[in-house]
Amino acid sequence: MQAAVESFIPSLKVAFPPSSWLALLPSPSTASPTIPPSASKYPFTISESLYTAFLDPRVPLSIAAAYAAAVHLLNSRCNGKPYCIATTRIFKAFVLLHNLLLAVYSLWTFIGMAGAIHRSIVTSRGVPGVVESLCKIRPETRFEGVEIREMEGGVGLWEEGLAFYGWLFYLSKFYEVLDTAIIIAKGKKSSLLQTYHHAGAMICMWAGIRFMSPPIWVFCIFNSLIHTLMYFYYTLSTVRIPVPNALKRSLTSLQITQFVVGGSLAALHLFVYFTPTTYLPGSVTEVVPSSSASASVSRHGMPVDVKAPGMVHCLSNPGEVWAVVANVVYLTPLTYLFVSFFVESYTKGGKTKRAAKAAAPTEKPAR
């Protein structure tokens, strides 16, 4: 068995995904149920019914719609003056605790996800092993187009931490809308960047966790790291500790970088094919090309490479594919909005333009 495994030569290929995928928009009601995390592996247990209930599509869609509508209404009533509550000590204490809580929570998520990725990735089989670790994160999706002769133990990234930390990170997107409430309470309008960012994050995190899409790990670990730094900066600002302007500029640059790099990594999952090695930790597994791999489409509707029997696509079902597409589509305008904010806030031309706009007299409406 060991000799058979060692003689199996892994391979990778980057190619365009099949156009047939565009017609495979999944339905949450017909997709495979999301697998809750095991109770024994994490600091606390999440109720399976609660886990599933929050992944109902009506939850993120209704909350995102209500959030966007409320922001639009409150923006229209903004007169530049803070609400009375914004001047109280209770409000200031809440803002401090809010920022500190999110900084600590984001750091906890980053450490948890980093550990899960470290435990899941098998480097002993080189790049193909790493790719397989990040593509086939659950046993039932590992070997599309191949037959498994023997499998003993081993878990993937989903069970190692993505199911647990990813679901909680999805819920945190609902809590983060309090950022907008704080801004409005201070008498300021919520920008399009702010509103779009929060509403879109709810839906995209839902898609990644609901369909157990492998690339959602990119969003979790990158975003949790950036949020750790960002909310720590907000905490310092709340207690009036001076922060150099260069640091603020660097944080915005890091946010833009995470969108570009993270979005690119997520999109790359759409183009990767590989031959299974396999990567199961602590087990010896022999895989051979399946007879079904000679066809252009596998039994689950996912394509396999006709010219290289046994080579499978990184993603395993339409739900995983569309979760990636949704995140990339969301990140594209978000990146543009952040770049525009950077130019306006930190470049000489942007500052001049903003100052001129602020100094311009307000036109009275024609009667």
TrEMBL record:
Membrane-topology annotation of the record: Multi-pass membrane protein
Gene Ontology MF term list: fatty acid elongase activity
Catalytic activity: an acyl-CoA + malonyl-CoA + H(+) = a 3-oxoacyl-CoA + CO2 + CoA
Keywords of this entry: Fatty acid biosynthesis, Fatty acid metabolism, Lipid biosynthesis, Lipid metabolism, Membrane, Transferase, Transmembrane, Transmembrane helix
Cellular-component GO terms for this entry: endoplasmic reticulum membrane
Name of the protein in its database record: Elongation of fatty acids protein
Enzyme class: transferase
Protein's GO biological process: fatty acid elongation, monounsaturated fatty acid; fatty acid elongation, polyunsaturated fatty acid; fatty acid elongation, saturated fatty acid; sphingolipid biosynthetic process; very long-chain fatty acid biosynthetic process
Lineage top rank: taxon: Eukaryota
